[in-house]
Amino acid sequence: MEIGFRTWQCGGDIEFIQCSHVFHVFRNSAFWQGTNSGGVAYKVPAADITRNKLRTAAVWMDEYSKLVEYASPPLTAGMTLGDLEPRKKLREKLQCKPFRWYLDNVAPKMFAPETKGLRAGALRNPAINGCLDTLGSNEPGLYPCHGQHGTQGLVMDGDGLIRVPLFMYEQCLSVRARHGGQNLVLRSCPTSSEKRPADMLWKLDETSGTFSLEQSGGGKVCLEAMEHQTPKSPFDVKVVACSSPPSRLQMWNWQAW
After folding, report:
1. Per-residue pLDDT of the chain (257 residues; tens, 9 = 90+)
2. Buried b (16+ CB within 10 A) or exposed e, 26-51
3. CA dihedral (147, 151, 152, 156) positive or negative
4. Do the domain assignments include residue 111?
5. Domain count, the chain
6. Per residue in 213-224, is it b (16+ CB within 10 Å) or e — as a string?
7. Host H or E run for residue 87
8. Nearest CA to 99 among 69, 67, 62?
9. Coil, helix or strand at residue 221
10. Number of C-beta neighbours around residue 230 at 10 A
11. With contact defined as beta carbons under 8 Å apart, do 148 and 121 qualify?
12. Which domain holds residue 242?
C-alpha cells in the first residue's frame, strides 16, 4: 500500500496492464531451516506489522493517519514508531502531494470517513467490566474488556454514527426488531449524501452515563448490559426503554484512546 500511494503522491503513477498476472510464491517451511511456522517460511511478529503500518500512516497519510491508528492494536510496551524525520524530510524534499490529493484524484471511489470530530475508544459498562464487541459478526454483544482495540474498537463521528474500524468504517451500530424486542446490529453506514437514520444516531450522556438513541416513532431506548451468558460471552446486551434514574447496567463510559 505504501509503495502505491507514495508513488502517486510524489509524482509517479502505477498502471494496470490489461491481461497481466501477478504472483506471490510463498516458500514452504519444510525447505527453510526446518522451522514449523504454519506452513510458511518464517514468522513475522504481529507487533512489527502493526508498527510498520503505523509508521507508514504517520509519514504519508496526514490527518487520515488516525484512522489507521484506531483500526490497529496498541503497540507492545516499550515499542515506539522510531525516528520518522528522515522519511518526512524525504517527502518534503520530493514535494509530495497530500494524502487528500491521492483520495480525490487517484482513488475517488475509495470510502474515507470524515476525520473531523472523530472520537475513538471502547464503550464500557463499569458495573461488569464488559465492553461492546463485534463478536466476529454483524450482531454485536458484550465481552470482557480487553483493551486491544480490534473487535471492541469504535469510532463516534460528529453526527453520532458509531463506526467500526475493523470493518473499514463502513459498518455502523444500529438496532432492528427481533423476537418482539430490539437487538443491536451492524448495518452499512449512510453515505455523505444520505439522511442519517434515527436508529443510527447514538448519544452518550456523560452525566447520566446512558447510551441511547431517539426512535423515529418517538421514545428513547438505551443500551443495557446483561449478566447473562451466551455461547460467545459471559455477558450479553439488549436495547430497552431507558429507566429513570438509570440502573447500573444502563450506565456506560467511553474508554478513549
Report:
1. 788 899 999 999 988 888 988 887 766 666 555 555 555 566 678 888 899 999 999 999 999 998 898 888 888 888 999 999 999 999 999 999 999 999 999 999 888 887 888 889 999 999 999 999 999 899 999 999 988 888 999 998 877 799 999 898 999 999 987 666 788 999 999 887 788 888 898 998 988 899 998 876 667 899 999 998 999 999 999 999 998 898 999 999 999 88
2. eeebeeeeeeeeeeeeeeeeeeeebb
3. positive
4. no
5. 2
6. beeeeeeebbbb
7. helix 85-93
8. 62
9. strand
10. 14
11. no
12. 119-256
Asked, for residue 112, whether it belongs to a domain, the answer is: no
127 with 239, same domain: the answer is yes
The domain that holds 22 is classified in CATH as 1.10.8.460
**In this structure, what CATH number is given to the domain that contains residue 176?**
2.80.10.50
Which of 105, 138, 168 is a domain's end point?
105
148, 94: one domain: no
